[in-house]
Amino acid sequence: MNTLSYGLLSLLTKNSRSGYELMLHIQPFWSAKHSQIYPLLALLEQKGHVAYVHVPQSDKPDKKVYSITEQGKEALREWIAEPTDEPVTRDELSLKVYCIGLVDKEQARKMLAVREVYYRKKKERFGSLMDKLQQGSDKPLAQLEIGDDAFGMYVLVHKATMKVDTDLIWCEWMKEKLK
Amino acid sequence: MNTLSYGLLSLLTKNSRSGYELMLHIQPFWSAKHSQIYPLLALLEQKGHVAYVHVPQSDKPDKKVYSITEQGKEALREWIAEPTDEPVTRDELSLKVYCIGLVDKEQARKMLAVREVYYRKKKERFGSLMDKLQQGSDKPLAQLEIGDDAFGMYVLVHKATMKVDTDLIWCEWMKEKLK
DNA sequence: CTTATCTATGTCATTATTGACATATAAATA
DNA sequence: TATTTATATGTCAATAATGACATAGATAAG
C-alpha cells in the first residue's frame, strides 16, 4: 500500500469524510488529485481498511462518507512503526532561480512577485486553519498534548506557518537583492 | 519537455558536467534518481539542446561530459518566461504526525529524533556548499548581484539554509511538547 | 578478508501522479 | 446572460518517477 493510502487512513482517524473532503484536507500536506484518491479509496474499501455509507444530498451531489475500520487502524499502527521516507520537494522556481542571470532584473522581480502572492495566500489559509482549530478546541492550542485529538493537526499547521513565514522572509530578502 | 530536463539545462549553464555529477548537484533542489536522468540526457542530446564528449578515465569509469548548446540556452530562456508551477512537497512524516496520538510519547520522540538527524546532516551539507561557494568567489557572497555567476546558487543555498533552520526549530519545539 | 561506498552509465518493469474526459446541480461572478 | 467556482464521483491514457537489475574498478571501513 502506498503512502497516500496511509495518509487517507490517517485523516479518517479523526473524522469520517467523503473522498472530496479527504482530497481538500490532505492537499496542504501531500499533493494529490482526486483522480488518484478515488481509486485508492475503492482499494482501501476492498481490503476492509475503510467502509462507506452513501449519503444522498438534495442541493449538492450525493456523496460517499468513508470511515476507518478496526483493521484500518491496525494497518496504520504498523505503518507508523516503520522507518519514515525522507521528504520530497520539487520546486520549479528553484531551478529557474539557479540560472536567473539569463533574464533581466525586471523579469526576475516579476517571477518572484508571483511566488510571493502564492506564499501570502498560503499563509492566510494556514491562519484560518489555526483559527478554526482554536474554535473547535476547549483549551488554548498551546496547551494541547499528544493525547488530544487536535494535537497532530495543531503541530502540523504550526510547522507549515513557520515554513511559509520563512519563505516570505526569503522573498523580502530577494527583493532587496534585486533592487 | 519536462521540468527536470530544464533543470538539467539550468545546471549546464554554469559548468559542463557528467550525468552522474548532474544527478548529485540537482538533488538538493529536485529529487531525481540516475535512472530518470540518463534517459533525459539522451533525449536532450537528440534534440540538440546538449552535446557531450566521451572522457576516458583510468582510475574511475569513463564518463560523458555534457555541455549546453546555443539551442539549449534558447529553450531555457523560453521556459523561464513561462508561468512557474507551484512547489510540490510530499513528506510522509507529516502524515504520521497527524495521527501521532496512535503511538506513545516514547515512539513519537524516536520518530522525531530520526528526522532531526536528517535535518542536521542537511544543514551541514548546505553549510559546506556555502563555504565552497565562498572559496570560489572573488567577493563576499553577500555582495553578489544578479549578473554574477554564483548569484543563483548563493540565493538558493541561503533559502535552503533558512528552511532547514526552521525545520530544526520545529524539532526543538516538538521535543518540548513531547516532554 | 569481506563488505560497503563511490565512481559511472545504462535499461526496464512497476508504481505514482497528472491531465483530460465525463456528468450534474447550485451559486456566485462578470 | 454567460462563465467560473464549488460540490461530488469516477475512468483512463499519458507522463513522471522509482527500484531493481546489470556491469565494473577503486577505495575505505569493519
From TrEMBL, chains A, B:
Record-linked SUPFAM superfamilies: Winged helix' DNA-binding domain
Q: Which residues form the Transcription regulator PadR N-terminal domain?
A: 8-78
**Which InterPro entries does the annotation name?**
Tscrpt_reg_PadR_C, Tscrpt_reg_PadR_N, WH-like_DNA-bd_sf, WH_DNA-bd_sf
- Provide the Transcription regulator PadR C-terminal domain boundaries: 89-179
Gene3D superfamilies with a match to the protein in the record = 6.10.140.190, Winged helix-like DNA-binding domain superfamily/Winged helix DNA-binding domain
Q: Which Pfam family is an annotated match for this chain, by its short name?
A: PadR
Q: What is this protein called?
A: PadR family transcriptional regulator
Give the organism's phylogenetic lineage. Answer: Bacteria, Bacillati, Bacillota, Bacilli, Bacillales
